[in-house]
Amino acid sequence: MKNIKTPFINGKFLYYAFIAGGNQILKNQVEINRINIFPVNDKDTGTNLASTVRSVIDNIKPHKSYKTTVSNIADAALIGARGNSGVIFAQFLHGLNRETINKPIITLNEFAESVKKSIPYIYEAVANPIEGTMLTVIKEWSDFLNSKKDAIYDFADVIIDSFAVLEKSLAETNTKLKALSKSDFVDAGAKGFVLFMEGIIGFIKNRNIRNLVVDASENISLVHSYDLTEDEISFRFCTEAIIKNMTQSKSELQKFLSQNGDSVVVAGSESICRIHVHTNKPAELFHQLKEVGTITFQKVDDMVRQQEAVSKRKWNIALVTDSTCDLSQDLIDLYQINMVPINLNFGDSHYLDKVTIQPNQFYDLLDTESEFPKTSQINEQTFTNLYSHLASHYDAIIAVHLSGQFSGTYSNSVKAGERISKEFEKPIYVIDSKNLSGALGLLVLKAAQKIGAGESVESIVNTLKKDVLQSKIFVSVRDLQSMIRGGRVSRPKGIIASALGLNPVISMDKNGKSLLFGNTFSQQASLKKIFKHIEQISRRKTIWNYIILHAHNSEGAQLVESKMFEMTGIKPVSVVNISPVIGMHAGNGALAVSLLFNN
């Protein structure tokens, strides 16, 4: 097809060009993951770039004005940016927006000039800029555009001709970047940008908007077998945040982050800033960042777990749950379980359950803070990012979540699973446990053991669906203060019940709704009621295993453990501090027993 002359471009052209470029990244994210060595060999650059472009694709619409469109793209990319390369790419788009004049259409000369002025933005954003990465490829591409902007009038011809420069620059990353010199790989982030431009050039040549719909049967490259270097990860957690209304400059923030880790990128502006840093202590880092500005978003990825998925995975079925799943960390690590944290907020302070706030810290805050904490569900994008990474390395994924009656987490996981399953053509099963805490933990543990035993994914899922009906939890509440503060019990009723000294026993019904199992006049009496009920069930069913839980009450947990062993002759799988998301309603001092009975 003969190229259509393009003396200028408008917003709609930019919109569809971006979609075409983004689709090319989505199609090749497995390949980008495969070659990811620098800065950390955690094989997620493709997933991170895919997340960044998805944020744009999902959140903007065509607009005829170029300036409006580039502004919308830049904002969406900054919010959805993920990983080192994703944040750098978002910063490039941020610079492009800042350096674009306010016009509905733009010429090649004006475009080339805005790209050139964007280069300092990406270099300044990186604390330690290194050549042979995406930075170099974008800079050399910009140099080519500016060398041609006056000689050739047509926009399309120059962009098409620039691909040879991009390919050459990409090939040279292998020799420029020391970390790549021992491999046959080019830089993964640079490869992502070149693929992005390849998609745009394909659109320029064909101008067929219908082709921009991603075909799930074609959008993933084959996963090749390859040898991995077992690079030691110095800083375990890939940590990101969006900070608004900063009280210090970006350079000051960059310096502070560099003292707490490496791979530091600070993108955006003082009014809204996206940070990226690899660190070992995300909880301490966020505690200090509270003084810098308002943290409206935070994300922490365990790069050791990510590396395990690539080079040390024990099985070919990935297992996912959320942070309301109460299992010991030893079991989570042993079975390589991917746990996604629920969001917790104490006023303006945002935390990630069990990641940037631990149970002991939480219960201390619960007693001392005047404002009762709030939770928010895990959003679809978070699951999309995780499933993209896991689908790059596993044959199938099983996710088991807290009751869908309590949170939208389950439904968001379902939506993300359906999307990524189509993209990767791999099965993703998402199961509503209709329970939570230790009961959820037992279901996850049983699934993990079956994965370890080599059972098929279909067999495991079928068993899990039956086991959901055999899982139980009984919670003994020490007092009603947290339930009253959290609105689970109305204040008038709560005051009356407290005055009478009532201690409720909470359980779950078969539909995943909370159930008042009974009232007693002391926690000791409520525990006796729980033990009696467990004995009655045990006459009809055998116990597969159980977990004891407590809210900052280890002494009480020891007494429950002793009684349960006396009754069953079985030691519990775990004795754990109950998930803060659950404990916030049960209250400090609560005790619980979760059981899974055999079918």
TrEMBL record:
<protein>
    <submittedName>
        <fullName>DegV family EDD domain-containing protein</fullName>
    </submittedName>
</protein>
<feature type="domain" description="DhaL">
    <location>
        <begin position="12"/>
        <end position="202"/>
    </location>
</feature>
<dbReference type="InterPro" id="IPR036117">
    <property type="entry name" value="DhaL_dom_sf"/>
</dbReference>
<dbReference type="InterPro" id="IPR004007">
    <property type="entry name" value="DhaL_dom"/>
</dbReference>
<dbReference type="InterPro" id="IPR048394">
    <property type="entry name" value="FakA-like_M"/>
</dbReference>
<dbReference type="InterPro" id="IPR043168">
    <property type="entry name" value="DegV_C"/>
</dbReference>
<dbReference type="GO" id="GO:0006071">
    <property type="term" value="P:glycerol metabolic process"/>
</dbReference>
<dbReference type="InterPro" id="IPR033470">
    <property type="entry name" value="FakA-like_C"/>
</dbReference>
<dbReference type="InterPro" id="IPR003797">
    <property type="entry name" value="DegV"/>
</dbReference>
<dbReference type="InterPro" id="IPR050270">
    <property type="entry name" value="DegV_domain_contain"/>
</dbReference>
<keyword id="KW-0446">Lipid-binding</keyword>
<dbReference type="Pfam" id="PF02645">
    <property type="entry name" value="DegV"/>
</dbReference>
<dbReference type="Pfam" id="PF21645">
    <property type="entry name" value="FakA-like_M"/>
</dbReference>
<dbReference type="Pfam" id="PF02734">
    <property type="entry name" value="Dak2"/>
</dbReference>
<dbReference type="GO" id="GO:0008289">
    <property type="term" value="F:lipid binding"/>
</dbReference>
<dbReference type="GO" id="GO:0004371">
    <property type="term" value="F:glycerone kinase activity"/>
</dbReference>
